[in-house]
Structure formats: structure tokens, C-alpha cells
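DATA SHEET
Item: assembly model
Revision: 1
Owner: S.N.
Input lines:
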Amino acid sequence: MSESAYQKLHARFREAALFRSTAGVLGWDQETFLPPAGVAWRAEQLASLSGHCHRLTTAPEIGGWLDEAAATVTTPDSSHTAATNIRGWKRAYDKATKLPVSLVEEWSRTTSIAQNVWAEARKKSDFIVFQPHLEKLVSLARQKADAWGWQACRYDALLDEYEPGARSAEVATTFAALGPQISAMVQPATEKAARFPKSLLAGHYPIAAQQAFNREVAAAIGFDFSAGRIDTTTHPFCTGLGPLDTRLTTRYDEDDFSSSLYGVLHEAGHGLYDQGLNHQEWGQPAGEACSLGIHESQSRLWENHIGSSTEFWTRWLPRAIDYFPHLAGLTPEQMTGAISRVQPSFIRVEADEVTYDLHIILRFEIERALIEGDLDPAGVPDAWNEKFKTLLGLTVPDDAHGCLQDVHWSFGLFGYFATYTLGNLNAAQLMHQARQSVTGLDSSLASGDYAPLLHWLRAEIHAPGQRWDAPELMRQATGETTQGQYFLEHLRGKFL
Amino acid sequence: MSESAYQKLHARFREAALFRSTAGVLGWDQETFLPPAGVAWRAEQLASLSGHCHRLTTAPEIGGWLDEAAATVTTPDSSHTAATNIRGWKRAYDKATKLPVSLVEEWSRTTSIAQNVWAEARKKSDFIVFQPHLEKLVSLARQKADAWGWQACRYDALLDEYEPGARSAEVATTFAALGPQISAMVQPATEKAARFPKSLLAGHYPIAAQQAFNREVAAAIGFDFSAGRIDTTTHPFCTGLGPLDTRLTTRYDEDDFSSSLYGVLHEAGHGLYDQGLNHQEWGQPAGEACSLGIHESQSRLWENHIGSSTEFWTRWLPRAIDYFPHLAGLTPEQMTGAISRVQPSFIRVEADEVTYDLHIILRFEIERALIEGDLDPAGVPDAWNEKFKTLLGLTVPDDAHGCLQDVHWSFGLFGYFATYTLGNLNAAQLMHQARQSVTGLDSSLASGDYAPLLHWLRAEIHAPGQRWDAPELMRQATGETTQGQYFLEHLRGKFL
């Protein structure tokens, strides 16, 4: 029997996944262990791998195979493995081949320059320096969106890169309703959180003890160390290097164990998702993560809903005291309170759980207006500062503490920020549903048995891969697409 | 100007070097950090990379480029960069393309099976189990030699794989003269070494202290940690992953610091060679190591000539006592004596510096006779045991302690063993020459200043890459090709 179009696609994209995950190993090594002088050769290696992957996945014959496979492969429904794969491969092929070479080159040149200029502009806290580059980036991003194609609005094409299936009008409505309700919580939550100052945890936390404790917690929530590891980097991340090779990283502060512990809980949340994908389908759309907003829901669920709860500390405080004896005498409530601070501030990456999404909503609204042409890049600082005052009640002192703080736009990342808040909303919605679907969930969590929750997440979220897009995956798991109310309930319960 | 054949070759083999070194990163990661469950996917990644490299470097157009480059590129002499590269690329292309596909496939199948059978046979200590596989391996190795081509004798074609330019008749003459002279030293050296028992070093050596001490020693001899690292593996090795990325590994025994220290000195010797290759030409023949026998000379030089000398311990014993206080009271002579044991034994990998090469000479003579057809595989155990008695004076109790102890032949490695002894001979010859060429060498070594020696090795051995083959490189550096006398003088001076 001659090889079918589907088999050819399968073999080709499997080959690409092998090379892509090889680039993943090189990237991981670069962050963890690469000697400093080795960086230049590493860049050449990655460029060669990237070129090879690009050629493998954009070769003209793939278009024909996709057409043939779409015409000949019949599946019971669109969530069948073969249908999922063909849809995913076509999506990737279209994304890669619809952009004219001239646009790809200009994009690469522009972002490369913009990154340096942004760093300079932030240092000087002077938006004017960055403005012409932002204008160019916005213009090119609009061209990208047009080349990819869109229906309701142009921004959808960019959002779709990170959150396939999401519609920005719907996201905008959800976020617009969410903002004021979170804003109203900030002051009372700040006051309540002040009852348990962080100084309750003052002390020395040796790195080796932190590592041992983190490892025990990560294993307890289900992270499989026979198929994964934890290493140290400046910026924590999680990366899947193969179907049974998931690597987390964290960073250590010997004055504050919570930085590494919650880093590990966050990254292990991503890692559990990665380990829960179907190993046999790893690297195929059916065995790949659904979206960034779903991925982030898994990290935030373990970090915020499980790890920073009183139930968690009721179970884990005695063990923490074994490792850090000076914590003896604290109650689980004090511990939970001390690590759950609330304090409005200017910088997103330092924001607490209550105010974090206000930072995101602001960015989402600004970049959507930029892409839709409703806001001129020159107007960004004013728009930023005004929204910041409304949402967080603070007056932005300068651009470095305002619209120049994030690297994202200089990389051309438009459509990315929203996935952080979608992740938080999804996490709360999934926990709400899990409490209804998993019998005795709260008592198993209280006893430190995380298997029932993980089992449910595996079935509902991890195993499906890209069988459904994110809105539909949420509907299948919880009965409705992403909503704001569960997250608001969570914040109220935890902080008010 | 259109791209010349030389430029096309250069670009193609540079691309191949990027992918080959990428495979190196994956291999290194597999030995050091890969989670156990990740092995299967890693094997697939490596197979894809290997296939891609093979296609890149064996494409038919390369034959034409090689012919054209050979005809059009004129260089002042054969050691010029371009001439060196063309020669090296042609050598690699011929080696890869001269073997018929059927032979490559049969080789792969046969060695894969033979490795398992060998492990089984060694466990049972029963050569008969392995014999038919050895017969097949020898027959295929002969076919390989014939496909590659040879002049004086068939074994040369196999030796050339690891030691380009070496002639086995010459090696055989050198080894045949060496064997009896080393044999004659074994008994007196054993008696003398017994004066300083290893028990002088008994004590606990924490791994962290060993790591710090080893690192200090490696940096002192010139290993550049900004372009390299040391990690932990079961089997120590050194691998170059790029022009400025050289990775060593060692293993730790908390009862015996010398195992990790001499492991590091040995691998750092390889690493210094790697770091001394021309960075700009890395991955091209002009920037690649000359041969295994030259590579091994660098590791043995630092391990045996520098690291296990009284001068070394005069400098380093006080520092060792800082890390391992229970060593206080030892003299440098006692330390040197305690780590320089001599004791004839059956297993090569446990052999001391005096008897080690007797193990190699035996293997070289047997495998050469196998390939030349002068010895039937069925006769290997008798030949082994007889030679062992003559060279080491011991009666081999069984095949596991005799001809079944090494994995090499089951992998099809014929021609490899000789490079260990060539390395020892080269090391002694180079040290002899360095003492004549480098003013004040002994006093700089005594003061712990290793830069003058490294500087000389860099110029004479490292920087030339493959500009000359190993015999010629030794002639350029020392005035003669590899000889036995300097090694014998070294052994006599150190052990008698």
C-alpha cells in the first residue's frame, strides 16, 4: 500500500517535532549550564535547527498533502485524532506560509532593533525614543494579521497565535466587566492582608533545604521526577523536551523560601500539563497543549488555588518546619496570610494575585486599540497612565514604571498578555467545577492527596491536547466558556 | 562572483558541524541530566540528527565539489588550511560513501546483536557463546577494510579510522620491543610501590570539597571555565560541544579523592586540547583533533606526568590539606607514592600505569592477527591467555577475566586499542621534548606555573589541528615519529 497523505504528514511533522524538541534541549541548556563563551556557537546551532524545521514544515508538497488528507480522511467528529492533527498541521502550515518573505524579513529586522531601543528607552524612561519603533511594530503586526486573515476584527488574528479560537470581542467584554469589580476589592484586600506581615517569615533558608522541600511538594502534587527535573535559572520556566522529559527551573532567595517554592508550584503546574499530554501523540497537535491561556490555568491553579491556601499549609507546615526550624510556632493561617500579600504597585511582574489582572486588562485594551487603529502609538503613555489611575488608583510616575516596563511589544508580542488573565479565569472556573465533579475533593486536598484533582485535570484538560480549541475545551470541562465570576468569587473568598 | 567549490564545501561541512555538535549536546545531556524516562525520545532525536548529518555530508554533489576544489585550490603546502580541509573532507566523504549500503546495514545489525551476546557471554564467562559473533564481526571488519582500501596490510585501513597516517607494521615493531621491557619492570616496580600503601590516604572526602579542589587544580593547569564545565557521570568523559564549550565529567568516591581528581586531570587534558584548537576553524579538519593517539597523549600527560609527580604534590599538598585536613602530616613523597600503585591484575580498566600498556599490546597483537587472517577467532582465548602469561606473568582464570572483559570488539571497534598506548608513548616523548624546548620548565612546574608547558603544547600540538597526520605532527614537535624509549625512561624514573 502506498503511503497516504496523512501518513506523509504524520512522518514529516514527527521529524519536525524531533528537531524542534532538539532546539528545546539546546535552549534549556543555554539557560541552565552553557558556559558563557559558548553562546555564539549555540546561536548558530539554533539558527540552523530553526532553518531546518522551517524548511521541513513549509515545503510546498505539504499543501498538497493537506488538501488530499482533508479530502480522504474521514473521522467520526472533529475531535478525532486524525482530524485534530490535520487541522493543527494546516494551521501551522498556513501561519508559516501565508506571510510574504519580505514581511518576515522586515519583522525580524524591526523586532531585533526595537529590542535594543526599548532597553535604552526604559533606562532613560523616555517613551519618545521608543515611539517610532512601536509605530513600525504596530504597522507590521497589522500587516501580519491581514496576511493571516481575520473575520470580526484584526486583533483576533494576533490573539489566535497564542489562544486559538478566542475572539477578542468576547474577551474584551469579559475583561471590561472584570476590571471595576477587581478594582473595588483592592483597598479592602490590602487592608486585610496587612494583618499578617511578611516579616513573620524572616529567617535564613538554605538553598539545599529549599530544594529538598520543593522537590517533596512537587512530587506530592504529582510531578513525575522519572520523567522530569528541576534546575536553577534567573528566570524560571518549564519546557517539554520530549514525551517523558519535562524540565522546570526556579530561582532561590536564602531570605525568602516562598520565591522558589511558588516558582516551583507554578512551573510544576505547567509541567503536570506537559506530563499529562498523550505521550504517544507528543509533538502532534493531538498531543500538544491547547493554548497559552489553558497552560497558564494549570500553573496558576497549583500556585494560587492549591499552594497558597490554608489547607495546603495545614498539611505542609509541619514538614516546612522540619526543613526550616525557625518557622516553628507559626499557624497555617499565619503562614498563608504572610505569603498572600496584597499591595497595588506599578510593576506587573511584582504584582500580587488581586491586582495582577488589572495590569493585564490595561495592556490588553491598549494593544487591541493600537491594532484596531483606535489608538495612535503616540497616545500610549497617556492612555496607560489614565487607565492605571482608574484601575489601580495610582499615578504612574514615569514611563519606566508605566508603558515601557514590559519587553513584550518590542518583541512584537501583541495578543500575548491576555492569556495571563485567561489563565487565571480558567483556573478558578476549573477549580469551581472540580469541586462539583470530584467527590470529596476538599477533604482529599486537606489531607494532601492531590491525585483526585490531578486525575480530573488529566481527563478534562491534559489528555485532549488540541482536540478542541480553548473556549470549547472549557465548555466541555465546565459547561461554559471562560467567565469572570469564578475568579471573582475566588478572590473574594481568599482575600476579603 | 559565483560561489567556489571550496566555499560550497566549507558551508556544507560547517552546517554538518553545527548539527553534529548539536548531537553532542544531546549526548552530553543524556549522560548527565536526562530523566530516565526520556531515553526513548532522545534516541529518536539522535537518530534524526544523525540521518540529517549523514545526508548533508554524503550528498553526491560533494564528490564533484571535492574534485573541483582539488583541481582549483592551490596552497603553498599541504599543511595550509584549505589543503588540510579539502583532504579532511575528502577523507570523511570517502569513508562514508565507499561502504556499500548492504555492508552498513549488516554492520549495524551485527554489532547491535553482538553487544547483547557479549554481555551475556561475559556474565557466563563463556567465550563459545560470543565466538560466532566475533567471527561475523571480523569478517565484516575485513570487508570494511577492503571497501575503504589499503596498501601494506588490511589492518591499516581499520587503524586509520582512529589514527590517520599510522602504519600497523611500524606500530607492531614498536609495541613488540616495548612489551618485554615493560614486563621486566613489573616485579621491581611492584615491590617499590608497596613502600607507600594506599591506606596512608584512608579517610572521608566530602564530594563538595573534592569538587572545589578539582576545580582549583583544573583551572591552575589552564582549563578555561568560561568556556567549559565539570559535571558528574558514571563513566567520565570529555566532549567538545562547540568552539568555546568543552565539558568534562568525573565521578566521586567519598573514600578516595584520587578517583575524581585524576579523572578530572585526565579529562581536563583532553579538554585543554579541545580548548586549544583554533576556534575560528572549529568543526573544520584544520580545527579538529589530529588523532585519538594524540588526544590520549594530552590526557595522560596531565594525569601521569604532571599530576602524579612529587613536584605536583609539593605544590598541591598544602592546598589538599585545606580541603581534607586529615591529610596533614603526609609528605609529598608519601602522597605521590600512595597514589602511584603498581600491581599486575587481569582487568585493563583497573590496571596501573606500568602494566596498562601490556594489556594494550596484547589486544593489538590479537586483533591485528584476526584481521590479517593469522588467527582464527576460535583461537582467541588461548592466544590471550598465553600472551597474558608471557607479558604479565599471571594465569588468566576465566574468559571474563580474559578475552571477554572489553566491550570494544562487540561494537566492531578494531584498531582502537592501539591508540591508548600510542597516547602514553606520545605523552612521554612530548614531555621529554618540552624539557628541552621550554626554558626552565621543571622549575616552573615545581612552582605550579603550568602556562609555559601549556603554551608549548598549544603551539606544537593543539593549534595545528589536522594540518599533519599524527606521525608527522610528532615529527614536527619532537623530531621523530612515536618511539617507545621516552615512555620506558619515564616509567623507570618514576617507578624504579
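QC remark: Residues 197-339+419-495 of chain B form a domain with the Neurolysin; domain 3 fold (CATH 1.10.1370.30).
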